[in-house]
Amino acid sequence: MPELPEVETVRRLLESIVLGRTIRAVRLSGLRLRERVPRDLPRRLAGRRPLGARRRGKYLLLDLDGGLTLLSHLGMSGRWLFHPRAPRARMAHVHARILFTDGSQLWFQDPRRFGLLRLVSTERLAADPSLAVLGLDPVAEPPTGPTLRALAGGTRLSVKGFLLDQRRIAGIGNIYASEILHRAGLDPRTRAGAVRPASWAMVARATRVVLEEAIERCGTTFSSYRTLWNEPGGYGDQLRVYDRSGEPCRACGTAIRRIVQAARSTFYCPRCQSARPRRHAGAPRSAATARRGRVSGPRARARR
DNA sequence: ATCCTATCCTGTAGGC
DNA sequence: TGCCTACAGGATAGGA
To answer: pLDDT exceeding 90 applies to what percent of chain A?
Structure first.
């Protein structure tokens, strides 16, 4: 679930929380995540002080003194949750609890267990197999049209598939891919290798704007994402197409359509994102079309 | 080489 | 109400 803006939000909060604290102990659930959580994690983390938190694509890097980095990925449903004091109530699906010497705790919770916790030598971080394959980070290096065009090369991949390919651009997921393409006025089914330079410039601009605005609003809470403080993100009511199947396009009023690409939902406006984009005045945005601050899952999904 | 499908998991919405 | 099915923000091994 969490894409770059959500992970970046977590990174900032994580860094502000961990600096100045010392790890006293770590407790593990013993359950397997995307891969097995190293059993010696408690022994290797005890006594260490976090030095900072970095992000690479959707991966979080918590640097610790002594040359170790705790690599984590939130998968679809992972969360880092901070508790200033030890909570009394039990919480399901907590796989790791980092206990600090001041009594506060940092929990990794992940119901679907697609997340990842891995301990890596900070020195050899670049060689980590998960990080080594990642492409350009669109926040660290905001892309330009020519950059994207070069990354696409002559691929037959759809432009939606291109945006989702972490080896080319790292951090964009299913929500923001649809949002970016709507902003760029580009049909998600267009072959990336055939996108014109002028359209690449639009995609590059849309990528920068959408990610920047989403980070500003602490990400999108679709169903389960929460910040470190267990608060939902605020970008949900800015979404133009994602999960809005059948609802009017905020720009032209045409019903938003849902299609399936590579077994994943894509949402787009058939008018604003047609092969030959038309100019339109833009329908006024009524209160009825303004998105409610919904935080539940998708409903009324269009079948086939 | 490139691209697509199935798979790992649990929670939940929606149909009946 | 409850049971059942389909789908959910991701990554990736393996097959075509």
So the answer is: 83
